[in-house]
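Support request, please re-run this one:
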Amino acid sequence: MRNLLRAYRSLIKAALITFFEYRAQVIIWVISFIFPLVMMVVWLAIVSEAGQVSGWGRSDFVAYYVGAAIVHQFTQSWATWEWEEQIRTGDLSFKLLKPLDPFHHIFTQIVGSKLFLLTTVLPIVLGLIWLAPGINYTLSPARLAACVAAVIGGFMVSMLMSTAFGMLSFWTTQSGNLYGLWYGVGNFLSGFIAPLALFPAWMQKIALVMPFRSTMGLPVEILVGRLDWAGIWLGLGITAAWMTIFTIIYRLLWRRGIRHYDAVGA
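Re-run finished. Output below.
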């Protein structure tokens, strides 16, 4: 464990140096931050025309989508495309010669990007939130801790889910497209398109047990105060369950895939 932590420190440091060297990443992330705000503008237009929607007013939508824009940056993962490229190009072979599982290389690279966001983009966004009227996140220390735990859990679900899809690259060159389709459908059940509270009851029940809510809806709902503690603990429990499920799927596909990869390499 000590050696693993030492390796993580070195790999994350290397990832951070890379991101700081390519400062154009900041522009890309700022642009991607805008996407949820487009949905906010749509809902604000609806509220202006028809009034409150299921008890959600103008300030509710502003607080929700600004929170969604922040959470999305810290929970998204692109591991599928990393695995797809490394397997397709054969770069995975070099990773297999190293003592550390290739998963850790991709994981630390993505964690490095989140730390880069934490030190560069997030302070700018928080400054804009502080200056913007009508945004007020009232969080007790306990709820703040729950929100942070939900964000970390959401990232791990996204990371392990995208890694599981990445394992399909041992058999197909379309794993990225498959994950894109899966994630596109998931946007409707994550709370990215609209708060899940606005969905029909039957759809809310489906979203509750699917992994997508963990990557978006759950942390944001905690942030804006839309969940009681029973709902928070249920959401965190479902998040932990999906982390376990995707870990098992990933490891099973890895063991089968690496044997297939060796056979192709031979």
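The CA atoms of residues 84 and 169 lie 5 Å apart. The chain has a mean pLDDT of 85.
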